[in-house]
Amino acid sequence: MSDTTGSTSSKTPPPGCPAHGSAVQLGGLEYQQTPSQLYRTMRREHGAVAPVFLDGDIPAWLVLGYPEVSYVTSHDELFARDSRRWNQWPNIPADWPLMPFVGYQPSVLFTEGPEHQRRAGVITQALEGVDQFELARECQSIAESLIASFGGSGQTELMSTYAHALPARAVLWMCGMPQGSADTEQLVDDLRISLDAGEGDDPVAAYMRVGERIMQLVKEKRDRPGPDVTSRMLQDAAGLSDEEIVQDLISVIAAAQQPTANWICNTLRLLLTDERFAVNVSGGRVSVGDALNEVLWLDTPTQNFIGRWAVRDTQLGGRLIREGDCLVLGLAAANTDPQIWPESHVGAENSSHLSFSNGEHRCPYPAPLLADVMARTAVETLLERLPDLVLGVDPSELTWRPSIWMRGLNSLPVQFTPAVH
């Protein structure tokens, strides 16, 4: 994202859009480190629906209110998912940084109506075939293998060595990729690069390799089906083409990997820095569950989601939304809406957060349950194997990634007594 601050922009508003004369630029240091404060300011100044500028001063609306996000996601006839409706396409350059998020693709993410129901139904049926106890055992095996790779050193950086790798390997196992093979490891790395590119990485090339390997997997499973998600999608009566299955598998894998990795790491950060969890965290399964749920409320991995596009002129939160306007779903802001949390008290025991979105385009059931199995197993196994795990730096030194979309740490260095094999 750009280096601009979260201050009010004085840019010339787009024609016919006076609200965007006071629009907030999404991005900057304030957004990275304390987005909740920026949401509070925006809510105070603009209400539940705020005018914002995306990269390159492209106007959009950020939906901050819990009732408003729930309304948008429940009314597909007013706020649709096909980005080709956007009225800003004439102003969008081909190399726009957010193109991977909004450029139309023939995947389940951008479908609407009966076609979306058909595509999402195939994914749901395929995921329902995953045995959650078997997944937990596989995640524990993956966790123990990863811990063994760094356990003797007494220190590691958990984002790269553990939190990202575990859900990537687990979801590829669910899809029928052979564990431990060189091309599976290459795919794990390419997934990381395509979703969260670092310095010197080529995310476009990595994404192309992911597509090629998933297409190869689909062809393999068409010839030799197995008890896996890919095979079940191929065998579904809806009869999706290989190309449709590749697109939808990539969506499933991406949705499972990056958010779950940040969910794991944000939970570990909470457990290692908040004294409420310090007393009984070692083997304390109850507190791990509380921490996992609290993170979904207060540090949800998917902060904002782009987006929905207005089907026609309509009203939302006292704003006139024009046909073709883009709405960014402020999931993190909605989760901390003071209307639902008086006195700013967020109850971790409540699970009605919007972290998996809402409505027809929410994460397909049972994806949130499978993500919970992965995250819970990852956290519990790490704490059981390394019971004296402590943060390797002062908590104030932890920094968040410069993304308005994902909420995740740059790194999570830890120290522990070296494990003896």
Automatic annotation (TrEMBL):
This is Cytochrome P450. InterPro entries: Cyt_P450_B (IPR002397), Cyt_P450_sf (IPR036396). One of its GO terms (molecular function) is iron ion binding. Residues 1-21 are annotated as: Disordered. It comes from Streptomyces liliiviolaceus. Residues 1-11 have a biased composition (Low complexity). Belongs to the cytochrome P450 family. Coiled coil: none annotated.
